[in-house]
Amino acid sequence: MRMYLLALNPTDSVTEGFLPAAARLGIDVTVLTDQPEAHRRTYPETEILDCDVRDFRAVITRIATHATHGPADAVFTNSDHLQTQAALAADYFGLPAKSWQAALRAKDKAEMRRHLAATGAATGAATVWSAELAAGQDPAELAGPGVPYPCVVKPREGVASEDVVLAEGPAELVLRCKEIQSRRPGAALVVEEYLTGELYTLETLGDGRTRHLLGGFHTRVSPPPYFIEEALTFVPGHPAELLTQVLAQLDALGVGFGASHTEFVVHEGRARIIEVNYRAIGDQCDLLLAQLLDIPLFEHILLTHLGEPLPADLGARTDGAARLEYPCADRAGTLTAAPAAADLLVEGVTLTYRPLREVGERHELYHTNRDYLGALRATGPDQGTVDRAVTDFLAGRRWEIQP
What is the pTM (predicted TM-score) of this model? Predict the structure, then answer.
């Protein structure tokens, strides 16, 4: 079987999750990427082809002209940026795929808001106020009395809290928009109401007929005006009334094939979606989820893209607890001291720490997950024991940044 995997930069999800899973399944993988050298350094044994993966036409042409291995059996990506391209390419070759329309709705935050507003009566979801600012448009045109302050500004097709910021009033809204436009001159922006409440995620896996709920996470976010995800605690199951609301919105968007990671805010019994990432959760959460549930998560995801049905029961464990913690840089500068990678077993808790920034590297302060210094994954028998192990681990290590 030959699978074409679309990628931008190398990620832990592909390197530690999907490629090993493909090898276990006997799937031959060809990676299409616009950063071939970075992938060759990361996994030199895998076939890497240079391709403008942001252009679905280039992807189709590259696959069609790569006749060495015969026809493709699957086209897959775990990249937020490439879901629509992968769906279009797979559909062109008659292969199992996500709906490209659903992939586009999930990626384009303005279109997601429009679509959910249009289907609100059917889903019962309250409409979130939002407006779109075209690339180069003067933000003063939006900063009128109709905007509900505080509001959130973000790139229409952004990821990972990049350039997501709170604005308290009209002057600040104009300033924030202009700052983002200076960094992203070709990007459209979305301005939407700030959703008060607790942030959660829902992780799902489907084959177009069966949809499994894998639990989710309760996310601790940095104080405004920025929205850095600092820690996530596993939630084995959300209340039924919240699930009904979130799943109705996913159904309205057409999201249900393969993996999906949905972020939503809960306030006074109401669940409102922040965004839908139509792929597996990242930042090593997917690695933790596979370990915690004790299921071949990455294999299941790949097999759905080969047209295989999911089992009625995944056999997932339900007796564990988990937490992820991300030590973050609080200033710009050079990392001069940091702990090394570690794998520990402490009082029944499995701790896995991986550095995300090398000692000696200098970085600016980004106010996104690019400020992560490392990732600590912890799984254990109960939440109290897991939390203590995480707290003790972090307290016993130090990260030092010099200007």
Answer: 0.95
